[in-house]
Design brief:
- The protein is an alpha+beta fold and 287 residues long.
- It folds into two domains: 143 residues, Beta Polymerase, domain 2, CATH 3.30.460.10; 125 residues.
- 54% of the residues lie in helices and 14% in strands.
- The chain contains 13 helices and six strands.
- The chain has a six-stranded mixed beta sheet, sandwiched between helices.
- A hairpin with a 2-residue loop joins strand 4 and strand 5.
- The relative contact order is 0.10.
Length: 287
Amino acid sequence: MNEASRWRFALAERIAASYARNPKVQAIQVAGSVGRGVADRYSDIEIDIYYSEPPTEAERIAAVRGCGAVVDSLDEDDDEWEEQMLLDGVHAATSTFLVSTMERYLCEVVEEGQIAPAAQTRLYSLQHAVPFVGHDLIEQWREKAARYPARLTHNMLAANLSFRGFWYAEEMLAARSDVLLLYRSFVEVGQQLIHALLGLNRRYLSTPDGIKWMDETLAALPLKPANCAARIKAAFRVEPVEGVRILKALIAETLDLVELHIPDFDTVPYRVNFSRHRQVWDGSPGD
């Protein structure tokens, strides 16, 4: 654990201890970059909390104030409660769920093979966070999450290997130097590429949308194109036409890896799509 993580982790323990006083709380983990021990100067503190039954607003506020923090905001949706707070001037936030919600996520992802990005994110956090309360329950969940299903691998590959639109417009945008549209396409392709590689490597999404900590994410994958992270970055730094070439090479190498390691996944439709090109006309059809 680096120094930036160490002092943040001590603050996280104060937050966790306050929440642990509520008998409804069944599990607490220190999550995010602090839990993984890789925090930097920009990192906030993330705490995952699992209740046996819904917390009241008064209980949520009391847990924040109980650790000496100040409530910044309270939010919730159908699955999650979130408390944003300031503790000794440092921003921290909870991701709070019911135990039954985590068990539903495990069913959706592990048993049914659904892509379910929000659920995958919870499973990623489960595997990488540091338990504070509920060690036995967390270990049971981790054992289930470790069984990454072949169906999910196939679904992740099918959802991300089409690179829709990239074959149609990228060369035109590069030739015209329409870099705003081109680099938006680059971002989409890069994210789809990494999501496909996560599926290939049987790893869960770390965020429901986008990619954070790209270098760390790719470094943890044994199956990937050589120098993958560096080449993705390079695509944005070289001339647009060369950037297109770099990403196309990464796509081709990823398809090679899929064929080698998941032979029952049919890559032919994706190869066909990848080989398409936008038609050009250099003169009148009548010439």
